[in-house]
Amino acid sequence: MTLKQKRLVLIVGAVLLLSAATALVLFALRDNLAFFYTPTQVKANEAPQGRTFRVGGLVEAGSVKRTGLDVSFRVTDTSQIVPVTYTGILPDLFKEGKGVVAQGTLGTDGVFRAKEVLAKHDENYMPPEAQSAIDKAKQAQERSYKTLK
After folding, report:
1. What torsion, rounded to 10 degrees, do the Cα atoms 86, 107, 51, 85 define?
2. What residues contact 136, with CB distance under 8 A and at least 6 apart?
3. Rounded to two decimals, what is the model's pTM?
4. What is the spatial distance between Cα 8 and Cα 125, in angstroms, rounded to a whole number?
5. Domain extents in the chain
6. Burial call 38-47: b when 16+ CB within 10 Å, e when fewer
7. For the CA atoms of 48, 132, 32, 115, what is the dihedral angle to 10 degrees?
8. Phi-psi region of 43 (alpha: psi -120 to 50; beta: other; left: phi over 0)
């Protein structure tokens, strides 16, 4: 084997090894990725069925129902509403009318079954995706209101 052929074999081997390592890392992370969707996107069937994702917005006022550790509430982006169920202890900052992000799966019945619930941590914070979704929903409502006039 000539020096040129040895170099070529070495380069091809390194590329194959790097490709295999990249594929393994992506395969391992596949189940840990949780994309964010708004209630409007969930209602438009843009969210994956049977896969973990996050839904966020505001906890609708008057929607929180507690039975022991079981809690049900509705998340809204002021345009659409997604019902959520959760079993466990909610964060101290979880309140009606405040921002929330829930991670879990969407059932075939349209109810989001949360495995984790995150509440905003101060008066000024809301996840950027949730704030953007709420702003877009408000703008859409204003446009539709203006066209009705």
Report:
1. -10
2. 77
3. 0.66
4. 54
5. 1-32, 36-144
6. bbbbbbeeeb
7. -80
8. alpha
Share of the chain above pLDDT 90, in %: 44
pLDDT at 53 over 80: yes
- In the chain, DSSP finds a helix count (H) and a strand count (E) of 3, 7
Q: Among the ranges 40-44, 51-55, 81-85, 123-127, which has the highest mean pLDDT value?
A: 81-85
Class in CATH terms, 36-144: mainly beta
Q: Could you tell me the sign of the dihedral formed by the alpha carbons of 89, 93, 97, 102, in that order?
A: negative
Residue 60: Cβ within 10 Å count: 19
Integer Cα distance of 85 and 24 in angstroms:
34
Q: d(Cα 45, Cα 3) in Å, to the nearest integer?
A: 57
For residue 87, which of 112, 108, 62, 116 has the smallest C-alpha distance?
Answer: 116
At 132, is the pLDDT very low, low, confident or very high (cuts 50, 70, 90)?
confident
What percent of the chain has pLDDT above 70? 89
